[in-house]
Backbone:
């Protein structure tokens, strides 16, 4: 009943091209019951006992190296078995997803042992030793018979309640943890060290990740940098294994254990990849609500599959060799693992391309439909960006390998956060700047001459205003903030005066009704006034030069540039663009 409800679920995260490991991809599975994996001394009888596991495999699977998930049942270390319905359901479902799964039996104590601190600590050690033997069993099989075709770098260990406690101690408790007091004494009394003697010696018991359902750890300090990632599910009010700190089972005489809350605080502090899923209420585990909440159990399986996905390898085409299949490769041709700002977008594709259109009044042709490229045709347009000096102080060393054939001039574009002010001081903040060429049709392209401007520091879902700056025209800022809803965004200043924030920030051309930036801001301070005339008047006749007072951008400073200034005198840019 439980199995049937679980295996039909389809989860959203798909790392492999066919959905393997994230959803049901195999119709049938086979179960090998009672596979012998080890032998140890029974703490109840004092006699040797065999240790068994049930192994679940997908039928018809041809994969040669498969991940395996070992799961251990709950029962306070005094009861339970590998036939526990929740363990069976999880093993069955995950095997349909393409995992090999194993439900392990481990040693238990008598119920009366709950009254003895040393025996309770020792049974945790013994259970962890058995789990380690089960891990080593699969590594031994891979080295000898290879019956199960296990990828020994991808062995995962998990469990429920006591089984989760087994798993956390298996993964995190080792000789580097400097045990002391009752913990050291209990281990020494067993006399078999951290690895135990439950079977399959000489093989590693390391696991790739831990699955903890209502689990805990003796001390969170046992979790160290570089150790196994962990995913946990836990009810906040769990009275059996506390989410926070306290003795298990409400048994005040037992040592405190540290539940999922403090374990994940420690994992964060140590840089261990982790994921914590909490539930309201006191159910232990969270799906144990009366007759059992199958939806919560199914949700646990989703969390497990999602969390393990980054640890898996799929048989698929990986053209760029970054370990990500082509059909789910976020950034083809680049390494998807490189994400310096940790926003989930690989660095090489963490780019927003901004298609901007703007016209300069001084360069418009008579019809007002395009701009002249006189600076380029006269050989005066520089390859290096011209905004390194005051007031811009944009010092990035950017030079174009070649200049586009229809380039009018350079422009500086700023992405800004905040809400623009109409008076007083600027209220927007520069997030990122970029330079590019303004083409005769009004488009702005990046310095390569091909493609839009590229921004790498903008956050998806946020909105930004954009400022366009030119060295002798009045700068403008977008009237509205543009949301970063995709990798490609666009804005056109030329369609209406309302496209620029503020009053009369764009001048219409009578013939074409194109709106353009005002010419005449020769000192680049955001205001067209007498100080701009002063720049022109200092040398009103300069031939074949790239000058700020060349208002019509023809390469010559002359009377026509005075005329450009005079017609726009007293125009004010908004406080956001003024220097």
Residues:
């Amino acid at each position: 009943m439980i199995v049937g409800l679980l295996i039909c679920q389809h989860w959203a995260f798909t790392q492999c091209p066919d959905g393997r490991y994230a959803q049901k991809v195999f119709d049938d599975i086979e179960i090998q019951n009672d596979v012998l994996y080890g032998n140890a001394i029974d703490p109840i009888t004092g006699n040797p006992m065999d240790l068994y596991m049930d192994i679940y495999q997908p039928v018809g699977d041809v994969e040669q190296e498969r991940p395996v998930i070992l799961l251990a049942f709950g029962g306070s270390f005094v009861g339970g078995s590998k036939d526990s319905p929740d363990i069976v359901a999880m093993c069955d479902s995950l095997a349909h997803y393409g995992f090999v799964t194993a439900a392990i039996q481990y040693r238990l104590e008598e119920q009366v042992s709950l009254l003895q601190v040393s025996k309770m600590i020792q049974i945790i050690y013994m259970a962890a030793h058995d789990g380690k033997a089960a891990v080593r069993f699969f590594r031994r099989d891979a080295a000898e018979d290879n019956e199960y075709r296990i990828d020994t770098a991808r062995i995962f260990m998990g469990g429920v309640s006591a089984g989760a406690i087994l798993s956390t101690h298996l993964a995190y408790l080792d000789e580097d943890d400097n045990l002391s007091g009752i913990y050291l004494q209990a281990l020494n009394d067993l006399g078999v060290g951290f690895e135990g003697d439950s079977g399959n010696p000489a093989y590693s018991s390391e696991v790739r990740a831990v699955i903890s359902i209502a689990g805990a750890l003796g001390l969170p300090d046992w979790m160290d940098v570089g150790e196994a990632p962990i995913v946990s599910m836990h009810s906040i009010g769990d009275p059996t294994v506390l989410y926070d700190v306290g003795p298990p089972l409400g048994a005040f005489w037992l040592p405190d254990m540290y539940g999922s809350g403090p374990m994940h605080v420690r994992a964060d502090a140590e840089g261990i990849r982790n994921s914590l899923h909490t539930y309201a209420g006191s159910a232990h585990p969270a799906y144990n609500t009366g007759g059992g909440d199958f939806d919560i159990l199914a949700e646990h399986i989703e969390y497990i599959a999602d969390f393990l996905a980054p640890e898996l390898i799929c048989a698929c085409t990986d053209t760029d060799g970054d370990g990500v299949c082509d059909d789910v490769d976020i950034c083809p041709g680049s390494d998807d693992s490189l994400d310096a700002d940790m926003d989930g977008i690989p660095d090489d594709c963490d780019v927003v391309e901004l298609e901007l259109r703007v016209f300069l009044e001084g360069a418009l042709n008579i019809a007002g439909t395009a701009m002249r490229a006189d600076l380029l045709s006269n050989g005066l347009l520089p390859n290096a960006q011209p905004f390194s000096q005051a007031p811009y102080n944009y010092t990035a060393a950017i030079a174009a390998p070649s200049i586009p054939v229809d380039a009018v001039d350079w422009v500086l574009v700023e992405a800004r956060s905040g809400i623009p002010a109409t008076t007083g001081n600027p209220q927007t903040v520069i997030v990122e700047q970029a330079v590019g060429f303004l083409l005769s049709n009004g488009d702005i392209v990046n310095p390569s001459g091909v493609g839009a401007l590229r921004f790498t520091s903008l956050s998806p879902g946020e909105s930004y205003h954009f400022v366009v700056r030119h060295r002798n025209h009045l700068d403008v800022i977008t009237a509205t903030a543009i949301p970063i809803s995709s990798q490609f965004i666009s804005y056109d200043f030329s369609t209406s005066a309302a496209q620029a924030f503020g009053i009369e920030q764009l001048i219409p051309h009578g013939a074409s009704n194109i709106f353009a930036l005002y010419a005449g801001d020769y000192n680049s301070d955001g205001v067209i006034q007498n100080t701009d005339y002063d720049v022109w008047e200092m040398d009103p006749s300069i031939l074949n030069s790239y000058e700020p007072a060349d208002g019509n951008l023809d390469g010559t400073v002359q009377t026509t540039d005075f005329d450009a200034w005079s017609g726009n005198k007293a125009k004010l840019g908004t406080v956001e663009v003024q220097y």
In short: The chain has two domains: 2-31+67-310, 351-568. Residues 117-143 form the longest helix (27 residues).
